[in-house]
Amino acid sequence: MPFITTGDIRIEPCHDKTLPYDGFRIVLLGTTGSGKSSFIEALAGANNSLNISGGSLESVTQEIQMYKIVNMSVQRTHDYIENVYIIDTPGFIDNTASAFEVIQKIEQWQMEVEFGAAVSQYLYFHRITDKRVSGSEKKVIQMLQSTAPGISTKCLTIVTSMWDNIHGSTALKRAEDNLSELREVVWKNHIESPSRVVKFTNTNNSATEILTGLSHNNIVGYLYHPYTDIHDRNPDDAFVPFLFQDLLDRIAQARGEHQTMNQERISLISRPNPNPDRELKSATTSAFKTAEERLLRYVNHLATFKSVPRGFDLDPKSITYQCLVDITSAYQNYILAIESHPKTSKVLPSTHPSRDSRQDTSDLDESLNAAKKDFAEAYNRLCLFGPPPPGFKPFPISTSQRFKLGVHRTLDRMNRFAKRR
Ligand SMILES: Nc1nc2c(ncn2[C@@H]2O[C@H](COP(=O)(O)OP(=O)(O)OP(=O)(O)O)[C@@H](O)[C@H]2O)c(=O)[nH]1
Ligand SMILES: [Mg+2]
């Protein structure tokens, strides 16, 4: 028997990055919510909950986490036994993390762990109760099926989850039909045999059986690094264009959200009583900041692509510049909205204002100071980008505005730093 179990299976999180040279490593992949962490929970057993699946307080897996499967090993030869490790990964099609980030995290983990981390087996998870493979999941599958990730057919098992959640013959029939489609169409050419699409029933036994049924061959694989030279790749590979398109889609979405949230902020602060609902104001600001943080992350990732994949007719630098302009303008418009409010300290009449008005003025001043700081940061980021790409005008800001908004100090420091180099 290649897989040996020597007692009750337990799961131990590996807290450091030291890996023995010879481990049998199983990486779990799939869209968010497909059941990867639940599979590990099932292995750990009901009495040893790890609190890592979506039902617990921790909503979804954000980072790569490796676990040792205690009391399970792989017998390579009669006197050579390997420990088994299972690696949980963040899901694809997540609201915030792009496919690029998920792949990059796996890559970084593979490079960081001591002795490297060649992967022996990949388990791809799919919820069998989903009506069909969605369009966005199909793209993830195409990306994984392209030659770039280097997942050999011998290293891949498709795990279908949620079987324990099927009630009634109609639902069961639909699930069986879905299973056939996965076996005979979706994964047909990428698995060794139809039996490599397996059922997970959310129990310890089911998870253990799936693992012990894996091929214990010596083939190992690495997911490709997403930003190695694109020209070195097979031009028909779906891997790079998929990551690129996913980033473009996310940038468009985050830009839209950022713009909407800024308009919302402006309309809240422009009311005669600018602080009617502090909770709403704080939630809107937080959504605006989150959209900005995501936008900046995505354009940074776009910049790591050495060249534009085949089939795309666009300039990533222009996209990045446009996003930086959008962010800077958003703060500029917000500042203008605050400054033109009748209750700002500048505009407030000199007669004795009421207590509420004084409070409004102090809140507006606070918002203004925060917005000025954010504007200075956004504007400096734009300056650090360098000259605008062809077709763009320099950002409209006068010297007096620059001084008024406090961006001169940081720029002076930047200039001095540039001269010293
Ligand atoms: N009953 C049942 N629930 C499941 C199964 N698989 C997943 N779930 C539920 O679906 C939700 C998401 O499951 P997770 O295991 O956290 O999904 P994941 O693939 O780890 O998701 P990410 O960490 O976001 O990538 C949780 O509420 C689970 O309890 C299953 O086979 N049966
Ligand atoms: Mg998870």
Automatic annotation (TrEMBL):
Residues 25-144 form the G domain. InterPro entries: GTP-bd, P-loop_NTPase. GO terms for molecular function: GTP binding. CDD domains: Ras_like_GTPase. Pfam families: MMR_HSR1 (PF01926). Residues 345-364 are annotated as: Disordered. This is G domain-containing protein.
